[in-house]
Protein backbone atom coordinates (compact mmCIF):
# COMPACT_ATOMS: atom_id res chain seq x y z
CA UNK A 1 0.00 0.00 0.00
CA UNK A 2 2.79 2.42 0.98
CA UNK A 3 4.78 1.65 -2.18
CA UNK A 4 1.72 2.27 -4.31
CA UNK A 5 1.13 5.60 -2.57
CA UNK A 6 4.79 6.55 -3.03
CA UNK A 7 4.69 5.77 -6.75
CA UNK A 8 1.54 7.87 -7.12
CA UNK A 9 3.04 10.90 -5.35
CA UNK A 10 6.24 10.61 -7.38
CA UNK A 11 4.25 10.36 -10.58
CA UNK A 12 2.22 13.45 -9.78
CA UNK A 13 5.34 15.43 -8.95
CA UNK A 14 7.01 14.31 -12.16
CA UNK A 15 3.93 15.21 -14.16
CA UNK A 16 3.91 18.70 -12.68
CA UNK A 17 7.50 19.17 -13.85
CA UNK A 18 7.05 17.77 -17.32
CA UNK A 19 3.83 19.40 -18.51
CA UNK A 20 2.37 22.94 -18.24
CA UNK A 21 -0.33 23.60 -15.64
CA UNK A 22 -2.89 24.81 -18.18
CA UNK A 23 -3.48 21.25 -19.38
CA UNK A 24 -3.04 19.39 -22.63
CA UNK A 25 -6.62 18.95 -23.88
CA UNK A 26 -8.07 22.44 -24.23
CA UNK A 27 -11.80 23.18 -24.28
CA UNK A 28 -12.93 26.07 -26.50
CA UNK A 29 -14.75 27.84 -23.63
CA UNK A 30 -14.75 28.18 -19.85
CA UNK A 31 -18.45 27.43 -19.36
CA UNK A 32 -21.33 25.98 -21.38
CA UNK A 33 -24.81 27.46 -21.67
CA UNK A 34 -27.29 24.84 -22.83
CA UNK A 35 -30.72 26.22 -23.88
CA UNK A 36 -33.16 23.53 -22.78
CA UNK A 37 -34.98 23.68 -26.12
CA UNK A 38 -31.80 23.07 -28.13
CA UNK A 39 -31.44 19.75 -29.90
CA UNK A 40 -27.72 19.65 -29.09
CA UNK A 41 -24.75 21.88 -28.27
CA UNK A 42 -21.29 21.42 -29.77
CA UNK A 43 -18.11 21.86 -27.72
CA UNK A 44 -14.68 21.69 -29.37
CA UNK A 45 -11.56 20.06 -27.91
CA UNK A 46 -8.00 20.58 -29.07
CA UNK A 47 -4.90 18.54 -28.23
CA UNK A 48 -2.03 20.92 -27.43
CA UNK A 49 0.25 18.15 -26.17
CA UNK A 50 3.31 16.88 -28.02
CA UNK A 51 1.72 13.55 -28.85
CA UNK A 52 -1.60 11.70 -29.15
CA UNK A 53 -3.96 11.54 -26.20
CA UNK A 54 -6.86 9.30 -25.28
CA UNK A 55 -9.75 11.47 -24.10
CA UNK A 56 -12.68 10.51 -21.90
CA UNK A 57 -15.65 12.87 -21.50
CA UNK A 58 -18.57 12.74 -19.08
CA UNK A 59 -20.98 14.98 -17.16
CA UNK A 60 -21.68 14.94 -13.42
CA UNK A 61 -23.95 16.78 -10.99
CA UNK A 62 -21.15 18.46 -9.05
CA UNK A 63 -19.30 15.64 -7.31
CA UNK A 64 -15.72 15.60 -8.66
CA UNK A 65 -15.23 12.11 -7.26
CA UNK A 66 -18.21 10.60 -9.12
CA UNK A 67 -17.18 7.81 -11.46
CA UNK A 68 -18.01 8.32 -15.16
CA UNK A 69 -19.79 4.97 -15.40
CA UNK A 70 -22.07 5.93 -12.48
CA UNK A 71 -23.01 9.35 -13.80
CA UNK A 72 -26.77 9.93 -13.61
CA UNK A 73 -27.53 13.08 -15.59
CA UNK A 74 -30.10 13.99 -18.29
CA UNK A 75 -27.34 14.42 -20.90
CA UNK A 76 -25.41 12.30 -23.35
CA UNK A 77 -21.99 13.13 -24.80
CA UNK A 78 -20.86 11.87 -28.18
CA UNK A 79 -18.25 10.56 -28.48
CA UNK A 80 -17.59 9.74 -24.81
CA UNK A 81 -14.13 8.34 -25.63
CA UNK A 82 -11.88 9.49 -28.46
CA UNK A 83 -8.28 9.71 -29.59
CA UNK A 84 -6.81 13.09 -30.48
CA UNK A 85 -3.57 13.39 -32.36
CA UNK A 86 -1.20 16.21 -31.44
CA UNK A 87 -2.35 19.57 -32.81
CA UNK A 88 -5.79 18.32 -33.88
CA UNK A 89 -9.29 19.22 -32.74
CA UNK A 90 -12.65 17.47 -32.57
CA UNK A 91 -16.17 18.47 -31.63
CA UNK A 92 -18.29 16.92 -28.89
CA UNK A 93 -22.07 16.78 -29.21
CA UNK A 94 -23.99 17.33 -25.98
CA UNK A 95 -27.67 16.38 -26.02
CA UNK A 96 -30.23 17.04 -23.29
CA UNK A 97 -32.92 14.46 -22.49
CA UNK A 98 -35.50 16.01 -20.13
CA UNK A 99 -37.21 13.74 -17.66
CA UNK A 100 -40.84 14.27 -16.69
CA UNK A 101 -40.00 15.49 -13.19
CA UNK A 102 -37.52 17.98 -14.63
CA UNK A 103 -40.04 19.28 -17.13
CA UNK A 104 -42.46 19.97 -14.28
CA UNK A 105 -39.87 21.51 -11.95
CA UNK A 106 -39.80 25.18 -11.00
CA UNK A 107 -38.36 27.13 -13.95
CA UNK A 108 -34.78 28.05 -13.09
CA UNK A 109 -31.28 27.20 -14.21
CA UNK A 110 -29.57 23.98 -13.20
CA UNK A 111 -25.82 23.46 -13.11
CA UNK A 112 -23.83 20.36 -14.10
CA UNK A 113 -20.14 19.78 -14.80
CA UNK A 114 -18.43 18.65 -18.00
CA UNK A 115 -15.31 16.55 -17.37
CA UNK A 116 -12.56 16.11 -19.96
CA UNK A 117 -9.80 13.67 -19.06
CA UNK A 118 -6.70 13.29 -21.22
CA UNK A 119 -4.47 10.21 -20.91
CA UNK A 120 -1.03 9.72 -22.42
CA UNK A 121 -0.95 6.32 -24.14
CA UNK A 122 1.77 3.94 -22.93
CA UNK A 123 3.04 0.68 -24.33
CA UNK A 124 1.62 -2.44 -22.72
CA UNK A 125 5.13 -3.58 -21.80
CA UNK A 126 6.07 -0.24 -20.24
CA UNK A 127 6.45 0.09 -16.48
CA UNK A 128 6.04 3.85 -16.60
CA UNK A 129 3.21 5.60 -14.76
CA UNK A 130 0.26 6.72 -16.84
CA UNK A 131 -0.31 10.46 -16.49
CA UNK A 132 -3.87 11.76 -16.45
CA UNK A 133 -5.06 15.36 -16.78
CA UNK A 134 -8.64 16.42 -16.14
CA UNK A 135 -10.48 19.67 -16.78
CA UNK A 136 -13.94 20.45 -15.36
CA UNK A 137 -16.14 23.31 -16.51
CA UNK A 138 -19.67 24.30 -15.57
CA UNK A 139 -22.61 23.36 -17.75
CA UNK A 140 -25.68 25.55 -17.19
CA UNK A 141 -29.01 24.15 -18.33
CA UNK A 142 -31.22 27.16 -19.08
CA UNK A 143 -34.98 26.59 -19.51
CA UNK A 144 -36.99 28.69 -21.90
CA UNK A 145 -38.95 31.76 -20.87
CA UNK A 146 -37.18 32.41 -17.58
CA UNK A 147 -38.18 35.69 -15.97
CA UNK A 148 -35.60 38.38 -16.71
CA UNK A 149 -32.23 37.98 -18.42
CA UNK A 150 -28.95 36.50 -17.28
CA UNK A 151 -27.13 39.81 -17.78
CA UNK A 152 -29.59 41.54 -15.43
CA UNK A 153 -29.51 38.94 -12.65
CA UNK A 154 -26.58 40.63 -10.89
CA UNK A 155 -28.66 43.81 -10.59
CA UNK A 156 -31.22 41.94 -8.50
CA UNK A 157 -28.72 40.75 -5.87
CA UNK A 158 -29.61 41.92 -2.38
CA UNK A 159 -26.82 42.48 0.12
CA UNK A 160 -26.99 42.74 3.92
CA UNK A 161 -24.40 43.50 6.57
CA UNK A 162 -24.86 41.51 9.78
CA UNK A 163 -25.36 43.71 12.81
CA UNK A 164 -24.20 41.20 15.44
CA UNK A 165 -21.49 39.41 13.46
CA UNK A 166 -18.99 40.31 10.70
CA UNK A 167 -20.95 38.49 8.02
CA UNK A 168 -21.92 39.74 4.58
CA UNK A 169 -25.13 38.12 3.35
CA UNK A 170 -26.23 38.10 -0.28
CA UNK A 171 -29.54 36.89 -1.70
CA UNK A 172 -30.07 35.94 -5.33
CA UNK A 173 -33.82 36.20 -6.11
CA UNK A 174 -33.39 35.46 -9.82
CA UNK A 175 -33.77 32.20 -11.74
CA UNK A 176 -30.12 32.38 -12.89
CA UNK A 177 -26.81 31.42 -11.34
CA UNK A 178 -24.51 34.32 -10.48
CA UNK A 179 -20.79 33.50 -10.22
CA UNK A 180 -18.90 35.83 -7.90
CA UNK A 181 -15.19 35.93 -8.75
CA UNK A 182 -14.17 38.51 -6.14
CA UNK A 183 -15.79 40.40 -3.25
CA UNK A 184 -14.13 43.24 -1.30
CA UNK A 185 -15.81 45.34 1.38
CA UNK A 186 -14.19 48.68 2.29
CA UNK A 187 -15.00 50.06 5.74
CA UNK A 188 -13.24 53.08 7.25
CA UNK A 189 -10.54 52.84 4.61
CA UNK A 190 -9.76 49.17 5.31
CA UNK A 191 -10.44 46.44 2.75
CA UNK A 192 -11.95 43.10 3.83
CA UNK A 193 -11.88 40.52 1.00
CA UNK A 194 -13.74 37.27 0.68
CA UNK A 195 -11.25 34.44 0.20
CA UNK A 196 -13.75 32.09 -1.40
CA UNK A 197 -16.49 33.93 -3.33
CA UNK A 198 -19.33 31.50 -4.08
CA UNK A 199 -21.47 30.79 -7.08
CA UNK A 200 -24.95 31.92 -6.06
CA UNK A 201 -27.65 29.40 -6.91
CA UNK A 202 -31.04 30.66 -8.09
CA UNK A 203 -33.33 31.88 -5.30
CA UNK A 204 -30.82 31.21 -2.52
CA UNK A 205 -28.92 33.16 0.14
CA UNK A 206 -25.22 32.86 0.97
CA UNK A 207 -23.16 34.11 3.91
CA UNK A 208 -19.66 35.42 3.18
CA UNK A 209 -16.98 35.65 5.85
CA UNK A 210 -14.59 38.51 5.10
CA UNK A 211 -10.93 38.19 6.00
CA UNK A 212 -9.56 40.49 8.69
CA UNK A 213 -12.81 41.54 10.38
CA UNK A 214 -13.90 40.15 13.74
CA UNK A 215 -16.08 42.96 15.13
CA UNK A 216 -19.70 43.64 14.14
CA UNK A 217 -20.25 46.08 11.29
CA UNK A 218 -20.89 49.74 12.07
CA UNK A 219 -21.33 52.72 9.76
CA UNK A 220 -21.42 52.75 5.96
CA UNK A 221 -19.27 50.63 3.66
CA UNK A 222 -18.47 50.27 -0.02
CA UNK A 223 -18.77 46.89 -1.67
CA UNK A 224 -16.86 46.09 -4.85
CA UNK A 225 -17.35 42.74 -6.51
CA UNK A 226 -16.86 41.03 -9.86
CA UNK A 227 -18.93 38.41 -11.65
CA UNK A 228 -18.43 36.15 -14.65
CA UNK A 229 -20.90 36.36 -17.53
CA UNK A 230 -22.00 33.66 -19.99
CA UNK A 231 -18.72 33.99 -21.90
CA UNK A 232 -16.49 33.90 -18.82
CA UNK A 233 -15.80 37.64 -19.07
CA UNK A 234 -15.25 39.48 -15.76
CA UNK A 235 -17.74 42.25 -14.96
CA UNK A 236 -17.14 44.84 -12.23
CA UNK A 237 -19.82 46.17 -9.86
CA UNK A 238 -20.05 48.34 -6.75
CA UNK A 239 -22.69 49.23 -4.17
CA UNK A 240 -22.85 51.29 -0.97
CA UNK A 241 -24.04 49.56 2.18
CA UNK A 242 -25.06 50.77 5.59
CA UNK A 243 -24.70 48.58 8.64
CA UNK A 244 -26.13 47.22 10.69
CA UNK A 245 -29.30 47.04 8.61
CA UNK A 246 -32.53 45.10 8.82
CA UNK A 247 -33.42 45.23 5.13
CA UNK A 248 -31.62 43.84 2.11
CA UNK A 249 -29.88 46.33 -0.18
CA UNK A 250 -30.05 45.91 -3.93
CA UNK A 251 -27.79 47.52 -6.50
From TrEMBL:
Q: Which keywords fit this entry according to its UniProt record?
A: Chaperone, Periplasm, Signal
Name of this protein:
Putative pili assembly chaperone
**Does the keyword field hold Phosphoprotein?**
no
Per the record, the GO terms for biological process are: cell wall organization
Please list the residue ranges annotated as the Pili assembly chaperone N-terminal domain.
25-146
Matching InterPro entries:
Ig-like_fold, PapD-like_sf, Periplasmic_pilus_chap, Pili_assmbl_chap_C_dom_sf, Pili_assmbl_chaperone_bac, Pili_assmbl_chaperone_C, Pili_assmbl_chaperone_N
Q: Which organism is it from?
A: Pseudomonas antarctica
The answer to whether keyword DNA damage applies is no
Pili assembly chaperone C-terminal domain location? 170-234
> Superkingdom of this entry's organism?
Bacteria
Subcellular localization is given as:
Periplasm
Pfam families documented for this protein: PapD_C, PapD_N
Give Gene Ontology CC terms. Answer: outer membrane-bounded periplasmic space
Q: Which family does it belong to?
A: Belongs to the periplasmic pilus chaperone family.
| SUPFAM superfamilies the UniProt entry points to | PapD-like, Periplasmic chaperone C-domain
Amino acid sequence: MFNRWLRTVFGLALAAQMWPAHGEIVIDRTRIIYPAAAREVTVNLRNEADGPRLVQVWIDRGDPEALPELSDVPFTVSPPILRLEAGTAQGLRLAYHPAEEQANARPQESVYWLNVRGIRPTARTSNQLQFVFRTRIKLFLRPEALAGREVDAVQTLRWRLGGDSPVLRVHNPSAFHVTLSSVVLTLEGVEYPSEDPPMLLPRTTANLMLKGRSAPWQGSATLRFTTLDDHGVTREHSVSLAGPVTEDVAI
